[in-house]
Amino acid sequence: MSSASYILIACGLAFEGRIARGSGLRASAPRVCCGMLRERLAAAVDPGCAGIVSFGIAGGLDPALPPGTLIIASSVLGANAAWPADEQWESRLLGLFPRAVHGPILGADAPLQTVRAKQNCFRQTGAHAVDMESHVAAAIAAERNLPFVALRVIADPAGRAVPGAALLGMRPDGSLAPLGVMKMLMREPGEVPALFRLARDTFRAGRALTRARRRLGGGFGLDLR
Predict the structure, then answer these.
(1) Which pLDDT tens digit goes with each residue over 183-204?
(2) Cβ(107)–Cβ(132) under 8 Å?
(3) Could you give all domains of the chain from N- to C-terminal order, each with its CATH number?
(4) I want to staple 83 with a disulfide (CB 3.0 to 4.6 A). Which of 88, 93, 138, 207 is the partner?
(5) What's CA 35's distance to the chain center, in Å?
(6) Over 50: is that where the pLDDT of 39 sits?
(7) How far apart are CA 110 and CA 149, in angstroms?
(8) Which residues pair with 6 in a beta bridge?
(9) Rounded Cα–Cα distance for residues 125 and 174 (Å)
(10) How far is the C-alpha of 221 from the C-alpha of 32, rounded, in Å?
(11) Where are the beta strands (DSSP E) in 23-137?
């Protein structure tokens, strides 16, 4: 760890990556991977890597948690495995964010679109939230013997379905594809209210994520000096 000089950040969406990079950071600035995550994370790990963070928004599974809720993972649950967060790093994050929810999050290979799917996953796993990056990042960290933590903010809450138009609006690299959204809405205009609600909640989550980022520094809670 004495030669470690940067933190590797795993994000799913381009706007999450922009928040993760922060501003005004120099030598300790994190490296961010979005899209094609397993390949990019694996290629980005070198002897200078101090650890891996899963950072971004998530879907709510716990019905008690509203949009904007910050979650620090105690562990990440996958389909056939579970990865605990690094205890010391996790403890530092909890010290920075004493009001954050602390508990497991679920990593999924596909979006959970319906309320019923979210309810089933919450009942089966007890995870507070779900995303599509944390289990990938946790697995890479375990393979490379690196510490891992996850910090996520709820966007779509447990009691709300994700409109199909929102999924069509995402490119593989995490950037937005507005033309796909417009085409979907022309076919399904009834999805417009749900899409606006999701946009509002995602904006709220993004603001919470930005506030959290300001407190994390270049080491995301680790001292890289």
Answers:
(1) 565 676 666 777 788 889 999 9
(2) yes
(3) 6-216 (3.40.50.1580)
(4) 138
(5) 12
(6) yes
(7) 21
(8) 49
(9) 27
(10) 16
(11) 31-34, 49-60, 70-77, 82-84, 101-107, 129-131
What is the CB neighbour count within 10 angstroms for residue 215? 11
What pTM was estimated for this model as a whole? Answer: 0.87
Query: For residues 71-91, b (16+ Cβ closer than 10 Å) or e, as one string?
Result: bbbbbbbbeeeebebbeebbe
Amino acid identity at 173: D
Are 28 and 224 within 8 A, CB to CB? yes
pLDDT confidence of residue 157:
95
**How many other C-beta atoms can be found within 10 angstroms of the C-beta atom of residue 8?**
26
Identity of residue 6: Y
216: Cβ contacts below 8 Å, ≥ 6 apart: 22, 96
What is the distance between the alpha carbons of residues 163 and 192, in angstroms, rounded to a whole number? 9
The residues near 116 (Cβ < 8 Å, ≥ 6 apart) are: none
Residue at 134: amino acid letter: S
Q: Which alpha helices (H) appear in 26-133, and where do they start and end? A: 37-44, 87-96, 115-125
Closest CA to 53 of 78, 77, 73, 27: 73
Whether the Cβ atoms of residue 57 and residue 206 lie closer than 8 Å to each other? yes
Residue 27 DSSP symbol: T
Give residue for tokens 């993004």: 206
In this structure, which amino acid lies at residue 195? L
Q: For residue 2, name the pLDDT band (cuts at 50, 70, 90).
A: very low
CA distance 53 to 30: 10
